[in-house]
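Feature request disguised as a bug report, sorry. It would help if multi-protein outputs had a clear separator. Right now it looks like this:
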Amino acid sequence: MRIVQKNTKLIVVVILIALAVFIAAIVTKAKIPLEQKTAEETFRTSGDAWSINVKPVEIKRNFPLRTSAWWKNAIINPCNALLYPYPYLLALRKNEIGIGVPSINAQDNAVITTKESDLLIQTPVTDRCLVENQNTLAVTFVQNFEKEDFIKITASKGLGFINISTNLNKLTLAGPITKIENYNDKVLLISSNFKKYGILFDRTPTISAQNTLVLNNNDQEARLSIFYVPANLDISKILTGVYTNYPSIGSRLDIDRGQTKNIISSQKNTIWYLLPTQKKALVIKNIELLDNSNIATLRGNMTPVIGSELSLLYAVNKPLDIDSVKLADSERANLKKLFDEDMKIVSDKIFSTEAGSYWQGKLLFKYSNLMYVAHLLEETENYTRLKDMLTVELRDWSNYTGSTDKKYFIYDEQYGGLISSKPEYGNETYSDHHLQYGYFIYAYTAVSSYDNDFRIQNKPIVDYLIKDIANTDEQSKYFPYQRHFDMFEGHGYASGLNYFVDGNNQESSSEAVNAWYSSYLWEKLNNNPVLANQYLAMLTLEQNFANNYYFNNPNTNIMPAEYKHDSVGILWEGKYDFATWFGNKKEEVLGIQLIPFTLVSYYLKNPRIEQAVS
């Protein structure tokens, strides 16, 4: 089957046929601290019902932790975590902090980063590690020692330096260091592992023969920033964008005149390193692009740029509207034939009480699309039957009726999210929530498109499903901001509260696309243009990332030549795998990046993908 067509109309027909053939996912119910008190009985709180075998990292502020953020390993093992704030590798350990720029090891079926630190900062031993702050891009970790001593580490993906503040008077440098020299009275240059790093201090330090830094801070807080020095980049230029007082940074998304705009901002001119896809999208205005000093990373050559606001623009792939689809007689006949075949296996008991949060959602997705096709074909009897089946099933998920109920969501007060009563694939540890709940949101939206009373009645649960996977409110006390979406890289991560040495990962880019697409459809249906634009922007970025990374776009020069494939099955922060969680056949690796098909799947109109699946 050729998925890509040159004619948009034919693409629509192919997608509609696919909608009638492919399956989707499941959901549950929860009791949330609802603003609408009348809906409170709909849900159930976790209480002792769920035991997630992860001790929550201590926090100083009352905010839900981002369980799939780039630093989620530090939630699980806060005093022993390996993190990937590109272009750096950051190791947080109970007696040291490790920093490095990892090298790349490419093989036939995988591309892997090295895990060793180039520079170590040795500290007193502690088991008291906590998260002090988090925002759209950055996080601050704190390690507490005896006598109220502390060290804080602040980092962000893309930022050109890692910031440290401490009231300790001495820090010891270690690692494969070959040379330490003064650049000036507040900057040290360190050669280690054939690389060069700099440390900017807020005061003049002294250094002993044993590589011990004396900060001369009289037990007051001292600040320093560690930065990599690429070849061909003058240190004086780097220092125009490095600070010991950590600048306030952030990222926001918007839709502007048919383009998705991702704004990365800082209080001052700051040095950033951009991915190849970001460099291509960068608006060159009031910034300095340092194009001859790239750093080779797993995500391709990252380019340094100095500025206070970086504007990245991407063309919006606006979803097609099913109500505008017009079929020729031959197309209608072909679609009708396939629809009739699918309807032969439709059963009023198709929604099993045993299926869990993934497979039940996929069924809801499949039958929602059959309903759409029935409506398009003016199959009134079948349309009514499918809509009634979906209505009953979705209402069951929406309403917790007591101990005999099998289908509902549970609000987990520990981490601020919805857990399925029948979790699958790590749902109970916040894995894959967007990949699973996107199917539910899609199904609720489909029925609501034809039934306004249903939309009103079920709006609370759908709103909370969306907040679980993609909350846009940074001040929310109930759900973390953007649980799954990486605001720097521009795509989703899925692994939740599961520690992996290779960091976060996401397998199915197409299911992530469906999550943001479904959220967009829901907000559009409910006349919420601001939120609809947020999810349309996320949808655009996820599609762009998939086309360049999951499908290995040769124009971006991301994958080393040693990697022998046109696609990636699992994308990690620390490696790429030509494999899935269920196999490593080519059709499995490609298939998990293609389905589910929807009316936004025309982003797959890509010659490389067409060649791969033909």
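(second protein starts here, but nothing in the output says so)
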Amino acid sequence: MDAQPRPRPDKIDSMPHLATGRMVFRRLLGLLRPQARWIALGLALLLLSMPAELFPAFVWMYVTDALIIGKPTGVSVWLGHFFSFGDRLAGWPALLVSSLAWMVAIYLVYEVLSTLSRNVMERVAQKFILDLRNRVYRKLQGQSLSYLQRQRTGDLMSRAISDVDELQSFTVNGIDVIIGEGVLWIVTVVVVMLIDWRVATASLAPVIGVYVLLKVFNRRVAPIYRAARDRAGDVSTRLQENLSGVPVIRIFGREAAEARRFRDATERYYAQQIKAINARSLYFPFSRAAGFMTNVCMLGVGGYLILTNAGFTVGKLLMFRAYWWRLFGPIQTLARVNDMVQRAIAAGRRVFEVLDAPDEMPDAPDAIQVQQVSGAMELRGVSFSYTRAGAPSEELTEQGRAANVLHDITLRIEPGQTVALCGPSGGGKTTILNLLLRFYDPTTGAVMLDGIDLRRIQRDSLRHHFALVQQESFLFNETILDNIRYGHPEATMEQVIAAAHAANAHGFIARLPSGYETVVGERGVRLSGGQRQRISIARAFLTNPRILLLDEPTSSVEPESESAIIAALDRLMTGRTTVLTSHRPSLIGQADVVYLIHDGRVTDRGAPAELRQRDRWFERFMRSAEMPSESTDEAGIVE
């Protein structure tokens, strides 16, 4: 099997349109446009609830000035007319009861409206995250292998899960707070300015300091949160790699070393979080101090105006005190939300880098669907390098480009023909299979299906006609039935069993306690290699492809399963165009045509019997099946 390119631990390239936090935040808000109607409804309910929330302070002012002190001001006089139902009620007991009854009634109105508003806004936030998470998944699922191999799987998982979760925290807990508290603060400012602009101005003066602190805090904390999200991706990458490589780690006794590497990654993440904590610890005490100073200014100026008979009353002072939290509370709340916004911007940038990554292998604008194919395939002068896939540095040329894996390959596969690609390991055989599936596009030349360049065929339409059986069969952590049906979900149970019979898999499936309902475990870990391969073959049978690609289908199975698998493959290849790679001479010998691939070049082609007569390497390769005692290393045929 060909050595696949090792992915470099490159990060996703940063993008100019995501350069600033403001750009990212605008982009986040732009994604809420599909929910505009529901947002409008939530805001309308919120605005309707605000007068009800501010009303109790007016009752305090009325009771103090009109009923207790007996010196009502203009607003208190109007409230007295309202509470007395047009002077129908008289005496302080009736007016007190009436004002308190109105206070309770309007509070209930506020509670209903605010609850409905909160419910609507939280639904909007959850729908936003639902759509975003699925959009990220679809983008990753549709990306080319080149792109995916350049990235770290753990980092991509961190972007799709942890970073989206951070955005969820912001949208669920932040957006309605920003809008609600912001609008409520503005309304409160208008009300207190109308009541007495002097006390209001003095009370609001410390807010200027909060604004300055906010700008300083944002500049300092933005790069910290950005680095923290990157370090979280590093932790996810390290965890994913170590869990996938547990057998290797244990075989070589590297548990302690890997634990240190994981601890190093988590400590780097911890260090960034401590930096963020330190920044918050400096900022929040100052914002709280500013809020306290509003209290001092309010009491000082208000008390002075009362004591100097400057037109300010005790009832108004109580009203201002009731509104103190409405003036300062939103500032403190928005300070916390601002911290949440900065984290969301850092996470959003990483999510948008995934969403905005260009499709490196798009369908051509005039790409067509192919409903039926004869199975004729051809490579015309194809050269290929893994440059865009992220070649290892040792494979780069002096010009910085990766060396070609394939060099001017030309080969033709006739409909219904079985073609074998044979040659030493690393020669480019698996790369050719990947080009036939259009997992990659050639650097030069063209890959054709029935005379049509693959780049002019829609990818989904193209792959519908293929089945691939690989060296390491991938099974999902579901039932055997689900895995066999994977390419044909509508298949009946009879069709599934027939496919399993054809793949020589029904016998061992029937002996399992749960039969076809047996859950195979992650990557099919509960089954042997041969059993996994036979399920993979059954899956291929059920999809009934026109073109079959076999990539070392017997190299990773136990000897007792090999004969059953080869018999199943013989049935699967019948009547189909088949391209196979294998280090088993018995499989290569069944091919109609063999192409010898050495160092990315076609060195010879012909029927197996012809090649044995004229190619010394191929003759030794085929003889290794007849003379197993001969050293395969000496024959130079190790795959």
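Even a blank line would do. Unrelated, but nice: The first helix runs from residue 21 to 30.
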